[in-house]
Each structure stands twice: as structure tokens, then as C-alpha cells.
Amino acid sequence: MITARAAASFEPVGRSVATARAFVRDTLQGWGFADIVDDAVVLTSELVTNAVVHAGTHADVLCLRSEDGVRIEVGDRYPEREIPLQGSPATMGSPDREGGRGLQLCAAIATRWGVEYTPTHKQVWFQLDLPDRPVGTRAAGPSLPPDLLPLADSRVRVAVVQIDRSGAISSWNEDAEELFGYTADQVTGKPLTDLAAWPHTPGTGTGIAEALQLSRWEGSYGIRGATGRVTPVYASHLRVRDTDGEPSTVCLLVRDHERAVLQTPSRHPASDTAPADGQSADPFEVFIGSPAPDDLDGLLQRTVERARDMLDGDSAFLLLATDDETELEVRASTGLPSARQRFARVPVEAGPGRYGSARMPAVHEDLLAVPGAVPLLNNTGMRSVVTVPLKVEGRLTGSLGVAAESPGRYSNEEALRLQFAADRIALAVESARLGELERLRRGSLSFLVEASDLLAGTLDRDQTLALMAQMTVPTLATWCAVYTIADQASEPYLSYVLHEDEELIDGIKSLLSKVSPPDPVPTPGARIWAAPAAAAHDSALRSSMRSLGLSGSPTHQVSSGIGPTLATAAAVGGETVVLPLVARNRVIGMLTLGKPTDEHFRQEILELAEDLSRRAALALDNARLYSERTAISQSLQRSLLPPGLPDIDGVEVDVIYRAAGEGNEVGGDFYDVFPISDGAYGFAIGDVCGTGPHAAAVTGLARHALRLLAREGLSGPAVLERLNSAILDEGDRSRFLTLLYGEMRPQADGSAELKVVCAGHPLPLRLRQDGTVEPAAEPQPLLGVMDDLELYEQTVILDPGDVLLCVTDGVTERREGTRMLGDDGLADVLTTCTGLTAGAVAARIMRAVERFASDAPSDDMAILAMRVA
Length: 869
What we know:
Blueprint lengths: L1 E9 L5 H15 L6 H19 L3 E8 L2 E8 L24 H9 L2 E6 L4 E8 L29 E5 L5 E4 L1 H7 L3 H4 L20 H4 L4 E9 L5 E12 L5 E9 L27 H6 L7 H15 L4 E7 L5 E8 L3 H4 L3 E3 L14 E3 L19 E9 L2 E10 L7 H45 L4 H12 L6 E6 L8 E7 L5 H9 L13 E2 L2 H17 L7 H4 L3 H11 L3 E8 L2 E9 L8 H38 L10 E8 L10 E9 L2 E9 L4 H18 L5 H13 L8 E10 L5 E8 L5 E3 L5 E3 L18 E5 L4 E5 L1 H4 L2 E2 L2 E2 L1 H10 L6 H15 L8 E8 L1
Antiparallel strand pairs: 1-2, 2-3, 3-5, 4-5, 6-7, 6-10, 8-9, 9-10, 11-12, 11-16, 12-13, 14-15, 15-16, 17-18, 17-21, 19-20, 20-21, 22-33, 23-24, 24-25, 25-26, 26-29, 27-28, 27-30, 30-33, 31-32
Helix pairs in contact: 1-2, 2-3, 8-10, 10-16, 11-16, 13-15, 17-18
């Protein structure tokens, strides 16, 4: 009877095999079938390999649970392939042949197996039965001598913790209190995951929260005690139902070094070949030890240490292959300067012949006879070395080597032993590497999303340069420098330098300023730039010589600069790479990343930096274009404003102008004061319909036309009538215009005569010395609407001390909710300006307008004040 099923489909790529193994392992562990997990995983691995690697099709895996075992079906979509008949092992080929081994293993391991066909699929299945055990017996281990039994404290404490269906603690015994320091009252009702220090169990993809839902589970994690200290524990979980039928989990926990109390022993066939010392027969466990490290760096470091000890070497190293298998990257070493060699890269094919490739085992009896055969060991004192490849499903994933200081230490026998160990750990290393790569890629995506948001949030060039550097240091590099190129004829310019230690920035900037900048090559990808490291080395050498008095100058005169110089040299003396900043098919700069002395960049970091450089280049070019267009816009806008106010004898003139909108210097409002002829001056203030560039275009037309027409000797009405015709001639681009235009002539008695035409504009206000305010003109039709205008001018005499105030409607229509300043409000403010200069009058009016409402003005504003002295 089938009691549970689980299914998954895997794409025809090599990495699907590892994913299928994990799927079957997690499924069977969740069902409580730990006794047959290993056999099921081995068989599944071979069958899925046949499907996705050899047949090149998708693999469909189906797990079926029954009361006495499990049936696993692996289907592919290539039924034409020849399948040997069961019972005819001779047709399966040689055991050394890669194809067909899955069926051989099925015949050797499975209780039952077979092959089924459909018109579109072929399906290989196998059945694994649970081993028969007497009632009450779970597992039994061999008898061991007393000196080999696990060492425990005076009393072994077993914490018993019960977890309800929601994952909260419902029971907590005295041993749990003693081990972790919490009383039952302190933890009851809290989720166990709040106390767990490690989110995942080593060697599995199952988290503690998921493990609590499985029928049976064993593994390691940590519990954070009341003191904050993490206690490593080994746990055995059993899923049960309470008297009310509610599911809960009983957890038994002991200190991790006492795991033998709870851990189910590994199954071994009953034979006389079992190790007498009680060690595990699993080659991986024999080589790596138990527990295996759960992180890639820990696994690699344990591997090189065990490999060195196994062959009694002086050093060992492990390299991992890049995705394209063209280079190997140093990831772990022992007995070598690991800090100097970490992440260094060497080619897979080092030279011609069988021993020049990392894809084959190699033994070098004396490296002095073949200098450069193993570049990693250059100048390390190692004489003999044996290297073997790490392969998974025929694909090179790395290389493991052991070296000794004396020649002739290794032969083919040691190579075979090391190759056997490499075969045992290759799969675990690849699985851990893929896990690390997945975490790095997720982190990279998050990093790039955040970087894109930050770069898109600014159009300021200097801020973009600073963001570019701050995002790379220290996430991608220890220091960085950004070179920019203004145009194709310009040389690269050092624009920004950043180091994670701010005290070293000036030293690095000084050092780079003495080095020729890198060539602006548009080739994508990172390239090595050796000049900074060479300059750093020379600088450090000169500093050291000066400190020893070898330069001919007194030591005390240079000793104060030795420390910073040596620190700068150490900071820049490592690997330096250059990435081009290419935007819109043009190199606009270079991003330079550096490491301290003898450190190297990981390939994943360089790929991430390349992605960042593409985004940063576009952001930097956008900032450049924005700056250029802003400068052009501001230059054009400034050309629409009057060059300055003329000095008029006996009359004070002042103007305040505010254009609405960020970055606008000119809008729809305009003003002008200019000489017409001897003793006569024209003045104007107007408002074009709307704001922004379109209104500014009509502004320029109106201001320049006024000057030209007024200097032709035309009267005020004639000037405005011709301007009206010019606006209408603009056609669809025309906009109506309100305009106050006047001519002023100072008189010999100290007064001033004004002739004014007010075409649809807010009326000018006259402030007398006694504080009375009155309009100084009458309203007439605005411009840009009708062809035939009948305008007339009015004469106004300003006595000494009188003020004429002219404003645009942005002042009078200033609003706060339903309130508006209006003409009356403006007149009230003007009455308080008696005795003030023209500039003080304009300033008081502007302050009143700004205080009238809290919001920023939404319309252009212009204030023109003239006072007869």
C-alpha cells in the first residue's frame, strides 16, 4: 500500500544530479527511512546521470513510500536507448565503463528493479525494503574495548524538550535547565528556533523549523544559553501525537561531544573485514573525519590538512576550477603562505604533455629539474609534489596537491592513494561550492539592485563618483580609484580615490598621481594593472633605504615620512584590476580596484564588479549629460534676463525676480529697465501665460522687441501694438501676454514724469509720502489675443519720496488655502513702506508674500520698485 509520494523533475544539466540526490535524501529522511537513504541516493544518482548526462533529457523522479520500504522511479524521455535485460549482466559492459553502471548497481543493491516503457518515456525503478529488526531494537553497534568508548562527564545530561504543533516549547526538563540555564517558566511558549544558534544542520539543506515537522530526525545545531554562550548539541527528534491527537515533537539533546548517546550508528555489513578499531568504514568519514565541516572553507581546509598528514607532506593545497574550467583558483593551503596565495589563479593546461595538465594525476620528483611546473610552489622551498584532479561526473572541479621539501618523496603509489581520497571528497566539495555560489549570487543580485537604486537616485557627477567608490569599498575591494575621460581627445584624469582606512587615501592618491593612468581600452572584463604595485614596491624600497641612511641624507630628516609611505605601499602592493566604464559606445573612464600586498580577487567578485561598472558607467554618463544640459539651459536662460539695471539720476530702481520650478532661472515673468534716449528710460514688467521653457521663449521675444521698438522712437501704445503683432505671428507657439510698459523722464524740479500703458497687467501702485496708496494706471486689453488693439498711455507725476510698485500676478495671487493676498493685501503691505528705499520696499513686499503661505510658490514672481529720491 502506498502511504506517501514525492515527485520532482530535473533539467538535462550536470548539476541536476546533485539536486536529485538532495531531493531523495531529504524525502527519505522526512519519511524516517534513514536506514536505506544511502543506497537510494547512490542508485538515484546513477540513474539520473544516465538520463540527464548520457541521454540528454529531463529526468522525472518519483518516490513512493510503503509500510515495508520505498520504491523510486526514474524516467527519461529517450525510450529508444538500448536497455540490457535483467538477468543478462554480461551485456551491461565493463564496470569501468561509465554508461550502464546504474543498472549494475540496481541489480547489486536493490531488492527488486525493472524497466518500463511508454510511447514517450522510459522508466527505471527499484525497490528497497527496510531491514528486519526485532521488536524494540533500533540499531546495534559493535562491541568496543573500554578505552575506545566515548568520553563523557561524570553525568550525562539528556535535555528532554517537547515542541507543540506551532513550534513552541511546551515541556522543559531539569537537565535542560542545567545545560542551558533557562527555567521551564522562562522558555515555555517560546519557539525553539528563537534559541537555536545555527539555522541549518551541517551536511543537509533542512532547517530546524523543517526538521521539527519530520517524523524522525537526527543532527547537530547550537542552543544559545541564558548567558549568551552557544552550546553545541546533538539532537534526536521524534514526532508523536499526544493524548488529544495533536502532533508534537519530542527532542532529546546532549552536548555535541556526547553524541554517541543519541546518534544512530552507521550500518555496516556483518563481516570479518570491519575495522577492528571501530572507525567508520565510509571513505569520506575516514578521510575528513566526523563531523564534517558544514562550510566550504572549513571543508577545504580540513581536506588539505588531512591530505598532508596522509602522505606525510610538508604542505598541501587545493584549487577549485572556474566555471569554464580554464583556470584553477587557490582556495585552501597548509604549510604555504596562504594569505599570499589565496584566490591566486593558475591555468588548467600549464604546458604540453600529460603532466602539464591539471586534468590528470601528476608526480614531480624534483621541481628544480622542471622549474615552473607547479607555479603555486615557486619560491616556497618545495622540491617534490603529487597532484590529482577532483572530478564530478567527468567534469574537472578542482585539483588537490601535497608537496615536500625533499626530492623523490612521492611515487605513483602515493598518487593513487591521494586520487582515492580526492574521489571520496570531490562530490562533497562540489556540493558545498555550489551552495556557496548560490549564496554569493543571491547576495550579488541584492547588491546590484541596491546599487542601481542608489545610482539612479542622483544626477550629480561628484555624488555619482562617491557612490561608485563607496559601493566597491570594502564590499568588493580594499581600495578603489575612479578615472574619468572628458572626451576622446582627453587623457584619463584621477577623479576619486577611496580606501577602507581613510588615513591612507591621501597616500594612495599621491602614489597614483605619479603613475601613468591605465589605457582606456573598451574591452569588457577586468584586466590586471601592474603599475600601482610596482610603484608601491619602489616607494617602499626607497623608504627602507632612507631609514637605513643609505640615501645619503640624514635619517632624522626622512624618518617622519617612512611610516605612511610603507603603509601606502602595503595597501597598494597587491593585485590591481581595471574595468572600463563604457556608456553609449564610448569609454568615459576606468574603475580601478585594488587589494593589499599579495592578495588576489575572486572570480565571482570580478564578475560582480563588471556588472557594477556597467551600471555605474551609465549613471556617470547620465550625470555628465544632465550637467551639460543644465549648464546650457542656465546659459540660455541668463541670456533672457537684462544685463543690469541702469543708473538713473534722482531715481532709485530695484528688482526682485523668482522663477518657479527647480533649476529655472527664467520663467514666464520678465522685467526690464533700459535707456531710450537722452534723459528718457523705458521700463517694463510682464507675464507670459504659463511657466517653464515655452513661456521663457515668448519672454525673450517680448523683452528684446520692447527695447528695439522703443529705441525707434515709437510711443508706448505703438510699441505694444507692434509687439502684439509679433506674438500673433508665432502661430501655435504664441501665448497671451500681460504687460505694463512705461517711459520715465526725470524732471529738473526733482520729480519724474511717467507715461504708462497697462495691457491686462496688475495695476501699478503709487505710494505717496503721506502713506496713501493708489493705482497709477487704468487696465487695458492684454496682448497676444486680438489683432486690432486700441491702447493709450497715461501720464503720472512722481513727486520726490514717491514710490511706484509694479508686480506680476504671482505676487497678488499668492494663496494659502482659500485666502489670496490680492490687490488689497498688496496695498496694505505697501502702506507700511513709507520712507524706505526702493530696495527695502521690494524686500518687504517679498517677505510678506513668502510669509503669507507656507508652500513653495507655484508661479513666477517679479517685483519692480522705483522711488524718486
